[in-house]
Write a structure and sequence with these properties.
The structure is a single chain. The chain has an eight-stranded parallel beta sheet. The chain folds into two domains: about 400 residues, Alpha-Beta Barrel (TIM Barrel); about 70 residues, Golgi alpha-mannosidase II (Immunoglobulin-like), CATH 2.60.40.1180. By secondary structure, the chain is an alpha/beta fold. Helix 6 packs parallel to helix 8, helix 11 runs parallel beside helix 15 and helix 12 runs antiparallel to helix 13. Helix content is about 25%, strand content about 15%. Bound molecules: alpha-D-glucopyranose. The site of alpha-D-glucopyranose has 9 residues, from loops.
Length: about 550
């Protein structure tokens, strides 16, 4: 079986601001990542995806970039970065940079110049218009911002301080491709490419179908428009071609049946983060207070569709820095979190594709619900809160949705040990540490053979050396069932089977399929003749 390096091992995602602070600043840094490389290696991964570490005013925690070819002093220096690449490489781990090319910070020199007049050399590097449309930005509020200096509006799909670049301009594209090549020449192993579906804008800027408040999400007007693939193929030619790298793009709205045009031979990227399985609560757009209940059959369908469409060129993920913790998202209220964390790990490592572990997921961390909206740092949480309030919800009701869905749930500091601030910092952490850190932390879990952490390590090692898991065909059984997720992986005459009970009650085994099967691992220590609550079992059939 011929597999690329990024198909053989998983990826560990790091949110550096919350990983490990080595300077006593209250925010994490690159040296913190360097210090924990052996821990990361113990998870059996072949790459680390670092969310942005470029100079940034941090309005969106680094996704507002002011310089594409440097490191923010809060995180360290280019020398620290080079050391990280080298030390990671010595452990057979590559560093994946996050490229944020749909927009820059409003402090980026390109924008600072662009806004000075309508005829400066960078005048059309961004999207300027005399009239706004009714588009609502992804973080809430109008997607257009009035610039006094230039007497025009500019488009920002995300925060006001994140103006959208104009990809129609060839100089913009050149400058972006040069920035990407700068990092490849420094030795990075590839890219996670942010919000890429928004780079192509419509030929005409017109109002979209209005929601009750008269606005229309910019997402509905600009995501994955015709013509985008031309830009992306140019990107590929100018940056990716001929390099042994891994590229994975964030592509909210690309559907499984469209995947072949985006990934693999004939496509542009190696893999694509599409959102169908993590957004099933939001069939009509991500407005948190309009969330629908979680439905297991929808979740399974989304995963199965992607599996079929990509034949394994697929990032498997249940968490990232934009999503709440999975143990609190995909299971009913009252579920045992340790069982849930292990059940998800079982799916993560046995589906076909590249498993992505988001920092803290391997410890089984859950959501940290803060008690006031003022405690939230995340810009989208504040936007969602305002939207809910504008829709008539009380403070308490609006806060409840923020507590459930806030991106800050995943951004609380990494829990290293039971010392103050979970060993993350010696100072006041930039975001409060989750209160459960005395129980859920890397040091305690390292010592406990039955911990979520050691479960992750075992499953990851098993997956990395199993030809059936690396390349076997995927088949789902009982897709319509709302209680269990069962699928098989087959290569030659061997079939492995994953079965997870998503409920908090006992469920009988479906007739006969496990007769004579051999349990390889599971989240209960012993065996039974039925599924116990949240039980996950991995069999050889
Ligand atoms: C992506 C990032 C998210 C960021 C947004 C704007 O969705 O994952 O964190 O806020 O793009 O750059």
């Amino acid at each position: 079986m011929k597999l690329s390096w990024w198909q053989r091992k998983g990826v560990y995602q790091i949110y550096p601001k919350s990983f490990l602070d080595t300077t006593g600043s209250g925010t994490g840094d690159l040296r913190g990542v360097l210090e924990r490389l052996d821990y990361i290696k113990s998870l059996g991964v072949g790459a680390i995806w670092l969310t942005p570490v470029y100079p940034s005013p941090m309005v969106d925690n680094g996704y507002d970039i002011a310089d594409y070819t440097d490191i923010d002093p809060r995180f360290g220096t280019l020398a620290d970065f080079d050391k990280l690449i080298a030390e990671a490489k010595a452990r057979d781990i590559r560093i994946i940079m996050d490229l944020v090319f749909n927009h820059t910070s409003d402090r980026h020199p390109w924008f600072v110049e662009s806004k000075t007049s309508r005829d400066n050399p960078k005048a059309d590097w961004y999207i300027w218009r005399d009239e706004p449309t009714n588009w609502r930005s992804i973080f809430g509020g109008s997607a257009w911002h009035w610039c006094k200096e230039r007497q025009q509006f500019y488009l920002h799909s995300f925060a006001t301080q994140q103006p959208d670049l104009n990809w129609e301009n060839a100089d913009v594209r050149r400058a972006l491709f040069d920035a990407a090549n700068f990092w490849l020449d420094r030795g990075v192993g590839g890219f996670r490419i942010d919000a890429i579906v928004y780079i192509k804008k419509p030929a005409q800027f017109v109002d979209g179908p209005a929601d009750s408040d008269g606005t229309c999400s910019v997402h509905n007007m600009t995501a994955a428009l015709p013509g985008i693939l031309d830009f992306l193929h140019e990107f590929k030619r100018e940056v990716f071609d001929g390099r042994d790298i891994f590229t994975v793009a964030e592509a909210n709205s690309v559907t499984p049946d469209e995947l072949p045009a985006w990934v693999g031979e004939g496509g542009v990227f190696d893999e694509l983060f599409e959102f169908s399985h993590v957004n099933i609560m939001f069939p009509f757009g991500e407005v948190w207070h309009r969330a629908e209940p979680f439905k297991l059959s929808d979740f399974k369908r989304a995963l199965s569709d992607s599996q079929r469409a990509t034949h394994g060129l697929y990032p498997i993920y249940f968490e990232n820095h934009d999503k709440p913790r999975a143990v609190d998202t995909f299971f009913p209220h009252g579920t045992n979190k340790i069982l849930a964390a292990k059940a998800l790990a079982t799916i993560l490592f046995t589906l076909r594709g590249t498993p992505f572990i988001y920092q803290g997921q391997e410890l089984g961390l859950g959501n940290a619900a803060f008690s006031s909206i003022d405690d939230y740092d995340d810009i989208s949480s504040r936007g969602q809160y305002d939207l809910a309030r504008a829709d008539g919800l009380s403070d308490k009701q609006a806060l409840r949705f923020v507590q459930k869905f806030s991106r800050d749930n995943a951004r609380t500091p990494m829990q290293w040990n039971s010392s103050p601030n979970a060993g993350f910092t010696s100072a006041e952490p930039w975001l409060p540490v989750h209160e459960d850190f005395a129980t859920f932390n890397a040091e305690a879990e390292d010592r406990d053979a039955d911990s979520v952490l050691n479960f992750y390590r075992r499953l990851s090692a098993f997956r990395n050396s199993s030809d059936v898991l690396l390349g076997g065909e995927y088949r789902e059984l009982f897709p319509e069932r709302e209680d269990v997720y069962i699928f098989t992986r087959t290569l030659g005459n061997r079939t492995l089977c994953t079965a997870v009970n998503f409920t908090t009650h006992d469920v009988p085994f479906p007739a006969k399929i496990f007769d004579g099967a051999r349990k390889i691992f599971g989240n209960y220590p012993d065996e039974s003749n039925h599924f116990r609550p949240t039980e996950a079992i991995f069999y050889e059939l």
